[in-house]
């Protein structure tokens, strides 16, 4: 009986994580079209420092993707700290390639810094973003993960 309950609860959790992943994808696409994204560690850090009240979500690269780069890790720690202090929803994504697809990085013809997907901020510069159901779902997931598991939630995005 216990084994069946664990299997069912694990399936429900996996299903919920997939739904949150879809909500995150929807949110990032909507935010991109509304010009409500800040992409890259340096740009995100500067924006967060100047406008912390305008940031509603921070998506960071997983630690595995930042291995070996001490400066990048330090910057990400500072960003995490600012998010925690300002009560900004924060999560990690394990698939920067999928993130690049979602925010149309192919459209960005710039320098190396413009291709930095180690941090993406979703800002509330558009009223539509605040009313977005996807944002509510992702924020709820971040809040629950932080309180229940006391850790940063990690989400693996689905390939399309």
Automatic annotation (TrEMBL):
Lineage: Eukaryota, Metazoa, Chordata, Craniata, Vertebrata
Highest rank taxon of the organism: Eukaryota
Gene Ontology CC annotations of this record: cytoplasm; nucleus
An individual GO BP term: regulation of cell cycle
Name of the protein: Growth arrest and DNA-damage-inducible, beta a
